[in-house]
């Protein structure tokens, strides 16, 4: 068994912030590019239209990522706060659903402890990364009430189990350093243990299943 990862609070916070910044660089950079194009080609109607479409699309993407990250990584209320699972569904669909990926959300609309909601969102985020070409993500409850846990199944072309993620969910480094990329699955495992659960990921036929129970 690999040694458990030990991170100071400041290091954890810094790595999570780096991960959020990494995810936002692309859409914010695209907005800046669009503005530069509009400034340089003020008399070209076709170019102006293209640039405006790019800005609008990138702004929507940035907004969706920020709303998702606010619930998945942020405080989202005071200690002991509960979050409406309907809000979790809204930000999840806003971030992930597009022309390539669809979501089947089978959870009841209830108030849940915030760390369980954060756990759920991070599980969905991991599942989405296993189907880079898109597909279907189904989200199902395990149990009910405040003790509810989750099963997230991702099905799509060439769904792939990330090599480092199983160990990171357990809090083990394996052969990989915990950097801004690896911090998200590691944080997911932390959330699961905080909720008294064990998070795992495994192939199930041609699908990938992320579970916590």
| Count of discrete domains | 1
Please identify the structural class as seen in this structure. Answer: alpha+beta
For the largest beta-sheet, the strand count, sense and barrel status come to: 5 strands, mixed
Based on Cα principal axes, name the global outline: globular
- The radius of gyration over CA amounts to 19 Å
Tell me briefly what this model is:
By secondary structure, this protein is of the alpha+beta class. It contains six helices and seven strands; from the N terminus they run H-H-E-H-E-E-H-E-E-H-H-E-E.
Please give a structural write-up.
By secondary structure, the chain is an alpha+beta fold. It has a single domain, classed as 2-Layer Sandwich (Heat Shock Protein 90). It is built from six helices and seven strands; from the N terminus they run H-H-E-H-E-E-H-E-E-H-H-E-E. It has helices at 9-40, 45-72, 85-96, 114-129, 165-170, 183-194; strands spanning 82-84, 101-105, 111-113, 135-142, 149-156, 199-204, 207-212. The chain has a five-stranded mixed sheet. Strands 1-3 form a two-stranded antiparallel ribbon. The longest helix is centred in the N-terminal third of the chain and has 32 residues, at 9-40.
Topology, please?
Blueprint: H1 9-40, H2 45-72, E1 82-84, H3 85-96, E2 101-105, E3 111-113, H4 114-129, E4 135-142, E5 149-156, H5 165-170, H6 183-194, E6 199-204, E7 207-212
Features:
213 residues; alpha+beta; Heat Shock Protein 90; five-stranded mixed β-sheet; two-stranded antiparallel ribbon; 6 helices; 7 strands; 50% helix; 18% strand; globular
